[in-house]
Amino acid sequence: MKNTIKFFGLALLSLSLVFTSCKKDDNNSTPADSSNTATVSLSTQNNVETDVWVYYSFESKSEVSGIDSSNFKTSDAWDIAFHSRHIRLNGGTSGEGMAAAYDAGVVDFDSVKEASETGYTEDTFIENALYAGNGAQGPIYQSTDMNSVFENAFTFDANTHPPTYAANMNVYVIKTRTGKYAKIQIKDYYNDKAESGYITFQYTINNEGNKTF
Fold it and tell me: Most exposed of 66, 115, 155, 201 (fewest Cβ within 10 Å)?
């Protein structure tokens, strides 16, 4: 009789452990691996010409060449792109991917632990976005595809020539081209030589496909 009770007790314990494990899997609680966190300083200047963007892939962890205004909407080689103080993602009107983003605000990067279910904004075509506050002939505007969520990523002083930029240090959560989740913080608009248009950012991506960072 005692052996029977012990058997049922062990069986119940095993079922409990299996059930708990399944619940953890259902909640997608596996955090992003630390190897999927990176700080990137782009090597290509993004503000020389009004229609030149610098493209970056989370998958290859590198800048992507060979993408321009003729093919960026159909390319699956990039996730995020930078041009002057503007940012586009591979989704919405900018691409065939699933990318979209929301602004988590000025918070500590590590404090953003999980992506939201809702609240994401896709890229749209924006008319007459300010490219440079004080060009040689005055303010320069352009109409192009970009993500409006990132329009507060930098503050800029248009009274200088050239304009000066400062990163606002907001943390943004991105649904990537393939539907994974990443968080990103724009750190600087200048490289270590104080040259403008060389974006530095840090990001963490969860390649497990869940929302936990």
Answer: 66
